[in-house]
Amino acid sequence: RRFHQACALHDPEGIDTYCEPRLAQAVNESLDRIHFHGLDIEMANLTVEQPSIKVLKVEISHGLNVDRDSNGNAEDWTTSESSVLGAPCTYYTPVKDTSSFFDFLDEEKKPYNVAVTALIESPMKLYVQNQNFSSILLGNDNSEMVKNVVRFETNLRWSDLTDVIPAENKPAQRWRITH
Predict the structure, then answer these.
(1) Distance between CA atoms of 48 and 148, rounded to whole angstroms?
(2) Given its phi and psi angles, is residue 174 left (phi above 0), alpha (psi -120 to 50 degrees) or beta?
(3) Closest to 114 in 3D by CA, of 169, 44, 55
(4) Which of 24, 49, 65, 140 has the fewest Cβ atoms surrounding its Cβ within 10 A?
């Protein structure tokens, strides 16, 4: 919902907040091109809650950052497979590893990347209108349900992985859209 709103409002900072940096750049460039040509993006059927969210896949990796550009190249890493709390996990270790056993004490170090791929079915959608809003050029504003496959990712500490109690006063985990 917030991503759709940021697109409709042409809010680059909002898109930067909700998307991984490389994806945010691509989305913002696309929105700039649309607005450059005098067109506008609108949002239809805003809903507070999504009618249907189905988790398709959950993945855990260790050592990767949600910000793809900060991870470097594939040859900078060695990979190994293991598990975390019984779930499969891919470990990415830098070729020149300088990590320490005591790194877990650093509150800022969040080595676990959790990715959730979900199918979201919702009537919310974006569409492109002409300058005077008299006609829709791309998309539509009807109430048909739209299916979107979205991948959300965040980086967590080990202790965050074990904190599964659904409480309202938990700190936000900064989930970002990556695909």
Answers:
(1) 17
(2) left
(3) 55
(4) 49
At 170, the pLDDT band (50, 70, 90 cuts) reads: low
Q: Which two tokens stand for residue 9?
A: 């409002």
DSSP H stretches of helix in 57-153: none
User: Could you tell me which of 178, 141, 160 has the C-alpha nearest to residue 25?
Assistant: 178
Per residue in 17-26, pLDDT tens? 889 998 899 9
Structure confidence at residue 63 (pLDDT) = 83
Q: Which of 147, 123, 121 is nearest to 45 (CA)?
A: 123
Read off the tokens for 155.
Answer: 């980086």
Task: Give the mean pLDDT of 77-83.
Answer: 85
**Reported pTM:** 0.74
Question: Residue 101 and residue 169: Cα distance in Å, rounded?
Answer: 30
Nearest residue to 131 via CA among 32, 36, 10, 5: 36
Residue 160 φ/ψ, nearest 5 degrees: -70, -30
